[in-house]
């Protein structure tokens, strides 16, 4: 049986330069050398704590109150178990509660939030840089059914995320995993936390991709979007990937097939390749159909001018034909669908100086024929 002795506290340490900031519980000389020594946690080895817990090789001394919040906490029953003549587990340094399957980092994240009293005020002060800690706390609270901490943590997380949080992709992925785990958790009549978190991740990632991201970064977003069925992220990701390829390609054929760099993108999964090529074909077909017919005036329109058909309709047809064949529009490469649409919009603006046209049409009306979104990237399964 391994016996443990307590080292001196940091206040008793001499100036000899020994590394006593991280205090250790070391085994006696006759202990099993294969057992790693426990490390007293720097942050959560609390004076006055009444509960000892071991997580990995770290020893925590905390106030058990934080583990027993809520009637359904797993720790409530654990502390009520009879111990007979032996001390209750967790009551001494040499007999800590061992939390198997957890990490010291996750438990430390839980305690960081648990000790940040009062929770109801901390929620409204949560910051984006605290999200990783909140994720750890939510996972631990969910695992051990500490409901008050779980709800407060999720509320704080939603507050911190805001609308378009810029985070590293691994944090986005962690948030989506947590949202799936907490799918049934909700507070009152509000939307489930899963929907709130996924929405924040989706638009935050879209905003991040709007910057000058590399192909691999977009591909990672596509992987996650497919896994979690995030339609908005997929639509933007595929469109952005295709447009980025079109603008950076060295060679394009007149049929719109990208010869480079698409063939060299070995990190793309088959589903991504299929959707990108499907989207390219769909966008080009949509463009061809759109430019073939001039958008008509609404039925029943009465122009205050005489000879409406001769002047107004004819002027609109000429303006449209001129816009779709203008050098600036034709110069946009295949695949850069959104850019081509913006160029066309700029070319059409002068036509709306006509009072007749502007009376019945808005600039965006004729552009509705250029459908966008998931329709371009849907494939037959």
UniProtKB/TrEMBL annotation:
Domain of life per record: Eukaryota
- Name of the protein this chain belongs to: BTB domain-containing protein
Which stretches of sequence are listed as region Disordered? 1-32
């Amino acid at each position: 049986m391994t016996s443990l002795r307590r080292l001196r506290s940091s206040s008793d340490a001499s100036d000899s330069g020994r590394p006593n900031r991280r205090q250790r519980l070391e085994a006696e000389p006759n202990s099993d050398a294969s057992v790693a020594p426990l490390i007293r946690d720097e942050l959560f080895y609390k004076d006055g704590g009444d509960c000892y817990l071991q997580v990995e090789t770290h020893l925590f001394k905390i106030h058990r109150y934080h583990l027993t919040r809520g009637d359904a906490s797993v720790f409530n029953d654990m502390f009520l178990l009879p111990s007979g003549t032996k001390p209750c587990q967790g009551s001494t340094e040499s007999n800590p509660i061992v939390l198997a399957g957890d990490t010291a980092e996750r438990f430390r994240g839980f305690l960081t939030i648990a000790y940040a009293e009062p929770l109801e005020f901390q929620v409204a002060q949560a910051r984006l840089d605290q999200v990783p800690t909140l994720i750890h706390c939510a996972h631990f609270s969910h695992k051990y059914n500490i409901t008050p901490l779980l709800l407060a943590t999720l509320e704080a997380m939603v507050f911190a995320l805001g609308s378009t949080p810029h985070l590293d992709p691994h944090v986005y992925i962690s948030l989506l995993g947590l949202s799936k785990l907490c799918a049934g958790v909700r507070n009152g009549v509000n939307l489930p936390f899963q929907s709130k978190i996924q929405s924040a991740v989706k638009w935050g990632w879209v905003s991040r991709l709007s910057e000058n991201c590399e192909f691999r970064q977009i591909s990672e977003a596509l992987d996650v979007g497919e896994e979690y069925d995030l339609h908005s992220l997929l639509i933007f990701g595929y469109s952005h990937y295709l447009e980025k390829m079109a603008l950076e390609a060295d060679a394009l054929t007149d049929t719109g097939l990208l010869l480079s760099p698409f063939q060299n993108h070995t990190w793309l999964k088959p589903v991504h390749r299929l959707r990108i090529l499907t989207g390219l074909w769909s966008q080009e077909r949509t463009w061809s159909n759109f430019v073939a017919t001039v958008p008509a005036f609404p039925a029943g329109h009465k122009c205050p001018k005489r000879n409406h058909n001769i002047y107004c309709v004819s002027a609109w047809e000429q303006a449209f034909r001129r816009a779709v064949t203008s050098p600036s529009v034709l110069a946009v490469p295949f695949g850069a669908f959104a850019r081509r649409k913006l160029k066309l919009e700029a070319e059409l603006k002068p036509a709306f100086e006509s009072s007749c046209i502007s009376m019945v049409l808005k600039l965006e009306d004729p552009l509705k024929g250029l459908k966008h979104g998931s329709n371009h990237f849907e494939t037959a399964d």
